[in-house]
Design brief:
Largest sheet: 7 strands, mixed
Mean pLDDT: 96
Structural class: alpha/beta
Shape: globular
Distance between the termini: 33 Å
CATH class of the largest domain: Alpha Beta
Strand content: 15-25%
Strand order of the largest sheet: 6-5-4-7-10-15-16
């Protein structure tokens, strides 16, 4: 994919508005941290690693816009900015990892020095995510056999990572290794990230992709047409329980029932060692309108009640392996994740 999801340019944050894809490729130049936080909340920027990167740049942007020269006042306002980002989306741990790093980077003899430190830290976070997703993709590609058809859910490509991709990165790397690979992409209701974004990325990469509804996965597994399932993650607890887009848990059970490998691809910044169990992961509840409407068009009778949890949690018993930039982890996950895991919050 040639378009950059996130880019720091001349003191502003340029984002590719993912809510407009695939119909329009629109870039927005954001010079206000509130606009960045809103872009995260409205899923103009989405995907756990990309959310963390955008928040880091947003915090740096907020710091550059402060008028005070008093360091104590500056740090107090900076803390409020960080709280704004912490409230934007609750499930993706990369967001909170980035906030934690930016908080620790707010050091220096004066306000100007702190501002510079924050910009540099945001750039480091971005560069590290790019490197991590490239590395994990190369490692994960070894699990893809020549001729495999891979099933993926939601979107875990360059759009979601501000880098190379996680689940889609593994598929891209397999192709670069000369393997013949094709993809089944679930549409991913209710916001259709698979239909809108995953297909868009794969078509640009020249990788054959077949779009299916979320409910078709079992049918194609039963027919023996799926070689493996690869998904991304928004948070991985210390025991291997993994939060990802709603519907992932169902796919994991289906894959297990049909003897199909089920892989999770994620950088170590998605690992949260502070949570002993995945059932402690906060699950974002989004507006019911996203279920009763598709892009503003009602698909259910007026007054219909709807639930809209954005994520579910997959137990490690259904996960064949977790692919990270520091290695491929298999059960027992508690031991493996502890060895490579990101810092605890």
């Amino acid at each position: 994919m040639t378009a950059k999801t996130i880019e720091w340019l001349d003191g502003k944050l340029r984002i590719l508005d993912q809510s407009k894809l695939p119909w329009e490729q629109i870039f927005a130049d954001l010079d206000n941290y509130r606009d960045v936080a809103m872009a995260i909340k409205e899923m103009k920027v989405r995907g756990a690693p990309a959310i963390g990167v955008a928040a880091a740049y947003g915090i740096a942007l907020g710091a550059s816009g402060m008028k005070t020269a008093n360091k104590d006042d500056f740090l107090a306002q900076l803390n409020q900015i960080m709280q704004t980002f912490a409230a934007s989306r609750p499930t993706a741990v990369n967001l909170f990892q980035a906030i934690d790093r930016m908080k620790k980077a707010a050091r220096g003899d004066g306000v100007a020095e702190v501002r510079k430190s924050l910009v540099n830290e945001a750039k480091r976070i971005h560069q590290e995510e790019v490197a991590a997703t490239k590395k994990l993709s190369q490692l994960g590609a070894e699990l893809i056999k020549d001729g495999f058809t891979v099933l993926t859910h939601c979107n875990a490509g360059a759009l979601a990572t501000a880098g190379y991709g996680t689940a889609l990165g593994v598929i891209r790397a397999a192709k670069e290794q000369g393997k013949k690979v094709s993809v089944f992409a679930t549409e991913t209701r209710p916001l259709l990230q698979g239909a809108r974004l995953t297909t868009w990325e794969l078509i640009q990469e020249g990788i054959p992709v077949t779009l299916i509804t979320d409910s078709m996965a079992g049918y194609f597994m039963k027919r023996g047409e799926i070689g493996c399932v690869i998904v991304g993650a928004d948070r991985i607890a210390a025991n291997g329980y993994t939060a990802n887009k709603i519907g992932t848990y169902t796919l994991a059970i289906l894959a297990n029932a049909h003897g199909i490998p089920f892989y999770v691809a994620a950088p170590t910044t998605t690992i949260d060692l502070s949570l002993a169990s995945g059932y402690q992961i906060p699950i974002e509840e989004r507006s019911p309108d996203e279920v009763t409407h598709v892009r503003g068009v009602p698909i259910a009778p007026e007054g219909t009640r709807a639930a809209n949890p954005a994520f579910d949690v997959t137990p490690p018993a259904y996960i064949t392996a977790i692919i990270t930039e520091k290695g491929i982890v298999r059960a027992p996950y508690t031991e493996g994740l502890k060895k490579i895991g990101s810092r605890s919050l």
